[in-house]
Design goal:
Chain lengths: 305, 305, 305, 305
């Protein structure tokens, strides 16, 4: 397969071209709203370590919610199944930032990828690794082999000044006893991990441990094979806001999207994939990214179904 | 009627005796949880200025949500109908501190007596009267003629340290653009007005302007007759958390209850009534207070229906 | 007051003229959609038996949900407080035909004036008075002294053929064990009572027992004074779909509206009022009717607040 | 793998033994409530046509919601993507028979496996294949090669007499214009397909077309490879009521459960699996069935993640 993978990526790039520039760039964060919408990149890293790319795969973008995959993996690596006492792993059927559902469920988020769940994970990770800086940054640097990866300070500042919705969620979690650290400290960590800026190439490399069944770039094990499998399962059922079913139906891979326009997708035992295009569809997922992944699985036998 | 009103109050006191000590004292604020549950007081102030009382009518208690009546009246006095652009006046059919409904209504609280609505009113009042102290305290002192009325600092501190739910509501309001001041400043004012400690006698006097159709104790006008009528209407439809219908059905008066166990009720053109008993029923209203008011309207022609 | 009441009604008629023809006629029932929107009538019947009217007060219209007042009164007359085991009396904060709330409350409707509650009342009334015809028709004929009042067969047929929403509610009630008769039989009764056609004059007369504290036109007692008071209380808190607070605020009277454009309002011990204008406002209440009642209470001392 | 598959099934049977008899048998249908809870069966059919089984794999049970997989496949075979205009394919996050969500979504069910979605599919299938009998029965007979498979008349009758909830859903769908046939006709078809009684062995065979990428037992094609993949994707995200995430996490296979205690699971290109045990866990899925499938994927490389 991988012999002609570069050709497949080139085909996918051409197939995506007609929708480039479509969709709407996230506008609630000024920094994101300023991104040029006509960009698109795709990168693949195989479990053998081969790398392939097409388009704007070397351009930095804000990883946003894709960071939730890394924080979840780090919490599971650090504290096993403890996190599942505090957050469920069911698809939500509600908006990513819904308070209603959280209230109804008495402070237990439906899954770790909704904002509420990611805040609980961030709180848990903060307890495991106190200190100034999120271990997520260190992790993605190590996995991609790129020590230059950094938090975009303007994005972080911009998000902190638009964080009333997340503050509301965090205080609600705390009112139910499901946030143990100070709200501001948790939000700072959360915003920091979301504001990490990376390229498709680096992100594909950083997520490759999930294709390698939990093994890190240096050969050490972050997660057991079972744990890696389970992160993939949560990605498939809950990784796409209110379009998890649509993604499973059209693409058929575990994945996680972010409002910066990136999507990380995993083909277990084969490769990790990162696509990026800033324009979002009505569900908040990258329009070109979704199209590219659908085209990619149509040209390969990678769909898990 | 008022000739034998003292006799009626004494009868009501006797009728309430069997349920004294019943219900549950609010326990989410330690200071409230420590109140002796076996107390009960009732006080009436007529539009002619006569005062009647029975039981523990001279014991201070925490007025809590009853303060929302005063803050609403002060906002209406200061800024006319402006507040109704920011809050509706419909009964909610949901818990007093529901976030789900607020989210669904995109940040417009259903009425000014739910916590969300009262926070919007507090925010509006803070904009109208900036500064350290809530004008509610000054107002109840002036109306009751008791300059000793004060904020119970322990209650206020206790509430501030248990304010995650209200912080969550305030941030959600702010995320919808319906809170203009700093969240902490609004919460401080809100907690301060709720922690005012007063007696039944003083509270009946402080609320008498609503029985006098808007005229204050000193003869000046706070609200127009129409405005006073309208505050009464909002009290009737929304003054009792999820038991507004029950109160209208059993008692038939505009009123507002607080989790401190107090209830302020208005008989337009006749009198204002304050009852107090710390034990709450399942809806969060004073068990003895509800009973007393039902007994009182059964013995008078005061029901408005 | 009543000496110049005719003059007041004439003034109200003039005050309403600018909004006549406004609003939207109910369109989900073809028969209602065909009504000429430029009509408006008002009628008052005092507890002394005097009658006043202005405008199109002698034109028949479909009473629709106003019939729910009569069915509730008849059930309370026949079976005391039993009905309150099956339906609450709280305002709903949701649409009149909401299934979500009913599901959440496990089959106990919030109040007897939502469709769900009215279906439970109709079911109870059917058990009390089995047979072909609803006792509501007989009751309004007797109270108004007009034996010609009848069910509009075309309206009833039209409603039966558009009754999927009500069928859904009825089956849901039955799934919770809160409907004892056959769904079709209950719906037939319900549709029949809603399709009664009456004039403002007759409807004011038919509702006058609530102003007379439960006493019927022939001097016999239908409800105790307390029961009549309580029906009034339920009307105030729940009589206007999602605009109960608005009506209490603007008008200040117990009342019940119907999508046919009629409103029945009660001034306890004084009079009953019926207004009618087919155009509905955004909440489903008569636009001219609401305006007329607000103008009326502004010109009288009838507001209960 | 399949060389020692019989040994694996025997191991799984032993691993399940400690929880046999646990859980609660569905009690809302008398016929289901009467089933002996101590039974457990498992059957596998490979894409090569090999068959393996252990335990009570030859005992008939009521397939209930598993039938929804067949009706969906038949509708897709008959009418391509048309059905997706009428039903979404997102996980619901709500109970399988929720009306609230359906009301909020204005009559478009979240997915074809909730009752609402399955009723829409049944309606569509009825339009495609009018007549007395559901094509589902004919299909499972043909695929399993067992012409004796039949509808359990007692179960069907029992369900029809307890169908108020489904009637409510069907009428609500119709009120939104999303049910075109008569409610009773749709319900009859729906109840009929749910009441089919089959063994694990026959059910594994009947579902094997999904492991064979759409190819029927006779070699003809029911669905395109893409369509089969997509049915599998919907099963994974929506096949387990409110435990889709749990199933993906623990088992990692597309599947569909029924309240009769059966589960059909698919390993694409490898095999179809049917497990059955009548006791249900808190989410309504077979307790022994879930355990068995988790044990099975732990012993094989069949998890798709």
């Amino acid at each position: 397969m991988t012999s002609d993978l570069q050709g497949v990526l080139d085909e996918v790039y051409e197939a995506v071209r007609p929708v480039m520039g479509g969709g709407s760039v996230a506008d609630y964060i000024p920094r994101l709203a300023a991104v040029d919408p006509d960009q698109f990149g795709i990168a693949v890293m195989t479990t053998d370590g081969e790398r392939f790319a097409a388009g704007d795969a070397a351009v930095d973008f804000s990883i946003q919610s894709i960071s939730k995959v890394f924080s979840l993996a780090l919490v599971m690596a650090g504290d096993g199944d403890e996190i599942w006492q505090r957050v469920n792993r069911e698809p939500s059927g509600a908006a990513f930032n819904s308070l209603a559902q959280l209230e109804y469920k008495r402070g237990i988020p439906r899954n770790p990828f909704m904002n509420a769940g990611a805040l609980v994970v961030a709180d848990h990770l903060l307890s495991l690794t106190p200190g100034e800086q999120s271990p997520v940054l260190e992790f993605v640097r190590a996995e991609s082999g790129n020590p230059e990866i950094s938090v975009d300070a303007l994005t972080a500042a911009s998000e902190l000044s638009h964080s009333d919705r997340n503050s509301s969620i965090a205080h609600l979690l705390r009112s139910f006893g499901n946030l143990t650290n100070n709200v501001d400290a948790v939000l700072a960590r959360y915003v920091e991990q979301c504001a990490i800026a990376m390229t498709c190439e680096d992100l594909a490399a950083a997520g490759a441990f999930l294709a390698r069944r939990g093994v890190r770039a240096d050969g050490s094990r972050l997660l057991s094979s079972n744990q890696a499998r389970r992160v993939n399962a949560v990605m498939l059922t809950s990784g796409f806001y209110d379009a998890a079913g649509e993604f499973a139906y059209r693409v058929g891979l575990p994945g996680k999207s972010g409002v910066g326009g990136g999507i990380l997708a995993i083909v277990p035992d084969v490769c990790s994939i990162c696509v990026w295009g800033p324009g979002l569809d009505g569900s908040g997922n990258s329009l070109t990214g979704m199209t590219a992944l659908a085209e990619l699985t149509a040209r390969t036998d990678w769909s898990i179904f």
